[in-house]
Design a protein that fits this description.
heterodimer, A: Rossmann fold, 5-stranded parallel sheet, globular, B: two-stranded antiparallel sheet, binds flavin-adenine dinucleotide, electron transfer activity (chain B)
Amino acid sequence: MNAEQPTIPRIWVFVEQQEHQVHPVSWELLGAAKRLSADLPGSVVEAVLPGHQVADLAPQAFQYGAARIYLIDNPVLEIYRNLPYAVAVSQLVKEHRPEIFLIGATTLGRDLAGSIATRVGTGLTADCTELSIDPANHILAATRPTFGGNLMATILCRRHRPQMATVRPRVLPMPDPAPDATGEVVTVPFDMREEDVPVKRLRLIRAEEQPNIEYAEVIVAGGRGMGGPEGFALLQELADALGGMVAASRPVVDAGWMDASRQVGQTGKTVRPKLYIAAGISGAVQHRVGMSGADVILAINTDPNAPIFQIATMGIVGDLYEVIPALIRQVKGQSYDGQAHL
Amino acid sequence: MHAVVAIKQVPDTSNVRIDPETGTLIREGVPAIVNPYDLHAVEAAVQLKERLGGGQVTVITMGPPKATEALLECVEQGADRAILISDRKFGGADTLATSYVLARAIEVINAELPVDIILFGKQAIDGDTAQVGPGVATRLNIPLITYAVAIEEFDLAARRAVVHRRVEQGIEILETTLPALLTVEKEIAPVRHAPLPRLIAAARYQPEMWTATSPVPFDPQQIGLKGSPTVVGKAYTPPPRSGGDVLSVADLGLDTVVARAMAVIERAHVGNLQSVTE
Ligand SMILES: Cc1cc2nc3c(=O)[nH]c(=O)nc-3n(C[C@H](O)[C@H](O)[C@H](O)COP(=O)(O)OP(=O)(O)OC[C@H]3O[C@@H](n4cnc5c(N)ncnc54)[C@H](O)[C@@H]3O)c2cc1C
Ligand SMILES: Cc1cc2nc3c(=O)[nH]c(=O)nc-3n(C[C@H](O)[C@H](O)[C@H](O)COP(=O)(O)OP(=O)(O)OC[C@H]3O[C@@H](n4cnc5c(N)ncnc54)[C@H](O)[C@@H]3O)c2cc1C
């Protein structure tokens, strides 16, 4: 496809911002890009930031590892819409022809990435959980779960550039920012006008409270074994005592006991807390793909054969309505007097 | 009103099992279904037709001959016309090649009867990429609205619609020109039971068969493996995370088990407990 080879292999990361807030997955991707860069001789890590009046976000991108940031500033980019974003970023891709281009697999990222890949005419691997460079041929190996998490597939894009991939939030670790890092800001001209955009946002009905379970350090999750919505107050009490958030398996969400924003798993969110407590959750593969990256997993289930025990750091065979209150008592006792009782 | 709905036949992934010996996917005996989101897309199109007092719903799929079953299910749900695009030459298509074929087919359908709206499922439950809808909208150069949950207004005369879509901050209400392409969530329309007359209609219906060359000569460079930049390098079953101790309250008593659990919780170094354990 590409007749002349670009001299420097560029690894690009799309910096997603909405209402001036950068989605943390962008920094996770910069961390991944730096690791990839170490295995791709001579490569540089660069960021792409479309928006309106967002130049002040650039220093953060440098701190998380970008050497250069392409800033595309235009009022039509103020609120995300597919067309202006896809046109702006595709133009930039065609001009600089990066080797690799990473985008967060968020609502915005999934809307955008497929449009860019189509405009550029290249391959796009969806929802990756692992990225590496094949040492033999310096190609990106992008691994993703398919068939409901039952099968992992490593996807390659041999001849087309860039090699594009979307990555879910929280499957890659958050890098530590380097406070003194700086870089170069490249301002990219983009002259689309509002009349050229066929979609207008009339309004946004904000969800009341948007729990961001993806970034919770502690998660106390309940499953169908809770037996009803009432027990979730108990889980909330434990979560509060541990400074965490409550999450749920899909049947809980389907039954309306919890809001969909709290669902963990293949069709819910991927979480990576330090501690994941699973109460009355059997541990189906579709649930596990969303939480098996937790540092410590504590599972409580009446069924000694529940699959969740196969991955739990520790399993408790018992009634959650007996175990959770006892845990609450212990945790509260400790944090109040600052003494371990054990 | 003319709506085109793209549907995909998929294995029911809730029934997919892994062969413990070989570590490969067992596909035999796994029922093939219409991708669940796509049924809601068909239903949304049928409801739009009812709302506007008439029109046509065309369903298309690219897939093996067996995908005829999936099309017939959509005819039962109320689709008027069904097209199977099937040829060995389409095999091995990734999302770029798939979106080429579907976009080209829709162009031809549009030339016969102008299309007002195109509906896709939000994603297929097997490939799971959610990339085909955005790819087709981009190729057709029409507005794309992903994760649509409701069509509030649909004004054929003014060529505009108001659509609600789910985003991370809540529900976004967008105005778009028509034709537009929507990828839909299940809320867009609940799937109804097909009434008897529809079942009878479907039993008699023969989907149209399109190949790689007829009636539409697809560009051989853009279809199947040739038109696909991505390839599956290797596939394997995910390595299991190994579990630790499993303690029974009945055997050891609540106090002992909870004490052990507290030690595990402390190991996670979280929140208030951090100071205690350091
Ligand atoms: C395409 C697809 C996508 C999916 N996506 C997701 C997803 O994103 N997230 C998800 O979670 N699921 C998902 N699922 C569903 C998944 O397959 C399981 O059905 C689901 O995770 C089971 O939820 P559960 O563990 O809460 O319920 P169950 O499997 O019913 O388990 C309940 C458990 O509670 C235990 N129990 C009962 N009473 C008590 C008690 N008093 N104390 C302690 N334990 C008790 C039982 O022993 C049992 O193990 C998906 C499925 C499909 C097909
Ligand atoms: C293990 C595995 C991994 C894969 N990974 C990738 C990857 O990372 N990148 C990539 O480009 N391809 C990938 N593919 C190929 C991809 O699955 C196929 O291109 C497939 O035809 C469409 O993708 P999808 O199933 O993800 O559809 P999605 O984009 O998730 O489907 C969304 C909607 O598009 C419509 N649609 C999808 N396919 C068809 C069709 N054939 N006919 C009519 N309508 C349709 C339906 O309305 C559906 O609801 C992979 C395939 C396998 C087996």
